[in-house]
From TrEMBL:
Pfam families: 2_5_RNA_ligase2
Entry's Gene Ontology molecular function annotations: ligase activity
Entry keyword Ligase: yes
Keywords: Ligase
Originating species: Streptomyces lavendulocolor
InterPro entries per record: Cyclic_Pdiesterase
Protein name listed in UniProt: 2'-5' RNA ligase family protein
UniProt superkingdom: Bacteria
Amino acid sequence: MHTVELLPDPATEGVVREVWRALAARGLPSLDSHRHGTNRPHLTLAAADELPGDARRRLEAAMGVLPRPLCLAGTLRFTGRTRVLAWRVVPGPGLLDLHRAVWDVLHPGGGEGGNPLHAPGRWVPHITLGRTRSRSGDWAEDLLPAALGLPWNGMFTGARTYDSVTRTTAPLRGVP
């Protein structure tokens, strides 16, 4: 599986990492414990089983609109086999346009593959804070860091792809 991800500016990345650390310090599931070198705060725009032939060139061109405003406001919880706590990304028109452009590159002609939850109209933009398969771990509201109760404004300044098989990333724009 290949994903296309937006990366926040350094200040926003720092705030998200601080929330990760605060969750972990409270004994809550957090991405702070995920030590793989590719782990960093990001917004997944879309996924595909394979990158179509000229996808990289077209994705790099689509990322020419960066930087884009970023607003984090409120938390989301996703349930299922894996439960997720996330910081909600408020999608402005520019972000929705970029999402659609990336979707169209990865799924030409409305093709199948990838995660249907990333499809336009179904996509819920967020930055993951923690995940667990344990039924005992939960994110009680009174244990959440205060930062999650306040909106945060920043910028998406970079983009990358992630290959889940090789566990590697490749820059698309502005990635250090």
